[in-house]
Amino acid sequence: MRTVVEHRRAALALVAPLPSERVPLDAAEGRVLAGDVRADAALPRWDNSAMDGYAVRAEDVAGAPDGPVVLRVLADLPAGSDAEPDVVPGTAARIMTGAPLPPGADSIVPVEATDGGTDTVRIDVPPRRGAHVRRAGEDVGAGDLVLPAGTLLGAPQIAAAASVGAGDLLVHRAPRVAVLSTGSELVPPGQPLRRGQIPDSNSFGLAAAVRAAGGRALRVGAVPDDVDVLRRVLTDWDGAAPDDRPDLVLTSGGVSMGAFDVVKELLADHAGMEFVSVAMQPGKPQGLGRLPGGTPVVAVPGNPVSALVSFHVFVVPLLRRLRGLADPDPDAERETAVVADGWRTPPAREQYMPVTLTRGVHGAAGGAGLVARRAVPGGSGSHLVAGLARAHGLAVVAADVEEVRPADVLPVLRLGRG
Ligand SMILES: Nc1nc2c(c(=O)[nH]1)N[C@H]1C(S)=C(S)[C@@H](COP(=O)(O)OP(=O)(O)OC[C@H]3O[C@@H](n4cnc5c(N)ncnc54)[C@H](O)[C@@H]3O)O[C@H]1N2
Ligand code: MOO
To answer: Where is each MoaB/Mog domain found (predicted)?
Structure first.
């Protein structure tokens, strides 16, 4: 049997980072920078006020502890004002937060330490020199690197890009993933079912997982166990115009030993495809490779828990590489949790156990951390899809472990993260 690490490596070898495109900031969330973002100017751009108050010369008001000092108010400086009144000895400018510090002034007195006057102002408390002044360049200098290529763009990164004047960003294209289920028993959810039929849950679950992992899902729904129909669908995608062609075809079902396992039946003999057993539970039967036209394919097993576990273990890293992330292995894997209840595990297979994760106090030292409990007590069946909905993550049990005991510490992979 192939190990999980070997199969992940084979999945990653199918793809390379996607080409770049320019997108407006509004469309940049979840994308990955394809080029560095540098500051077009220093940030802050000029010395400015951190408080609503008065811009003064500190030496003018140094005597305030011995009694109030009165200054003439020269000007009103709201944020956005381009006025440059000279604050000469004996004067002050009323100033609002964010307005540039006027020439001559070196300190800000907050309005609360004054009488709030508009012609003259009485200063009751002297500021220290430089008080409440935000210095030009204290965040970044002109030309400094703000966001390196390979950065995942979330709210803070988009705000930083906007603040240094980037109106749009060079990012990797988002992966297009065609998602299809196979199985003649599958019916769109909500439609009446006759005996033997079930709703197709995988194409919806996997399409949602693709979007959560930063991709665009082209959900086709269920294809019956008919090789000719499946061949037609796959050939259409593989031969599509470059702008419509998926970067990955993700199929579920039809990869094990059944008489009607249509994905395996159609693709097993293709030169670029391989169908293997991976030493994991769930998710043992797996397929991957390329269609004749070069389109990468990952074929995950049909059991719904197996399909989603396989997605997190193999497809998320592959999507991360397509998106341009430097480290394709999801860092969520590095979280750990303490197990509340133990269970026996299958021999020689890495196990992915759906668990709830809560904050708790545990251990001799009473440290606070994550506590994992099986989402389906007593069960780890790959068909328990409603139980999976309670899980926050997958606890990963090494292949050579046969029993997990209470208080064991396990790595956990968060569900629903890209
Ligand atoms: N003789 C053997 N039988 C099986 C083996 C084996 O090694 N030898 N492996 C088992 C394991 S492990 C898994 S996992 C499954 C995987 O089978 P397939 O990928 O071929 O999947 P199907 O047979 O098509 O379906 C399995 C199961 O999942 C249900 N399913 C499939 N697609 C969907 C969908 N879109 N939505 C909801 N449910 C779906 C399907 O109805 C079946 O119940 O094989 C074992 N068998
Ligand atoms: O290993 Mo299969 O993927 O669960 O039940």
So the answer is: 178-321
- The predicted structure's pLDDT at residue 418: 52
Query: Residue 175 and residue 207: Cα distance in Å, rounded?
Result: 12
Parallel, antiparallel or unpaired: strands 335-339 and 285-290: unpaired
Q: Tell which wins on pLDDT, 74 or 335.
A: 74
- Angle in degrees, CA 289, 293, 297, rounded to 5: 25
Residue 61: give the domain boundaries. 48-134
The token pair that represents 220 in the structure block: 């086709």
Q: From its phi and psi, is residue 281 left (phi > 0), alpha (psi between -120 and 50) or beta?
A: beta
**Beta bridge partners of residue 108, listed in sequence order:** 55
Ligand 1 centroid distance, CA of 253 (Å): 6
Is the domain of 187 the same as that of 153? no
The pLDDT confidence band at residue 179, using thresholds 50, 70 and 90, is very high
Residue 387 has a pLDDT of: 84
The residue nearest atom 3 of ligand 2, judged by CA position, is 283
Q: Identify the three-state secondary structure at position 61.
A: helix
Which of 357, 347, 358 shows the shortest CA–CA distance to 395?
357
Q: Are 132 and 114 in contact (CB under 8 A)?
A: no
- Other CB atoms within a 10 A radius of the CB of residue 320 amount to 25
411 exposed, middle or buried (CB, 10 Å; 0-12, 13-18, 19+)?
A: middle
The answer to whether the CB of 373 is under 6 A from ligand 2 is: no
Ligand nearest to the CA of 262: 1
185 and 314 together in one domain: yes
On whether the CB atoms of residues 358 and 371 are closer than 8 A, the answer is yes
**165-169, 222-226, 259-263: segment of lowest average pLDDT:** 259-263
What residues line ligand 1, using a CB cutoff of 6 Å? Answer: 181, 183, 185-186, 198, 200-203, 252-258, 261, 282, 284-285, 301-304, 306, 382
Q: What is the pLDDT of residues 336-393, one digit of tens each?
A: 999 998 999 999 999 999 999 999 876 555 556 899 999 987 766 888 888 889 999 9
Considering the domain architecture, whether residues 120 and 240 belong to the same structural domain is answered as no
How close is the Cα of 235 to the center of ligand 2, in Å? 28
For the whole model, what pTM was predicted? 0.92
Same domain for 187 and 273, yes or no, is yes
- Domains in the chain, number: 4
Between CA 110 and CA 32 the distance in angstroms is 42
On whether both 362 and 379 belong to a single domain, the answer is: yes
Beta carbons of 110 and 92 less than 8 angstroms apart: no
We report the CATH number of the domain holding residue 405 as 2.40.340.10
Looking at residue 116, which CATH number applies to its domain? 2.170.190.11
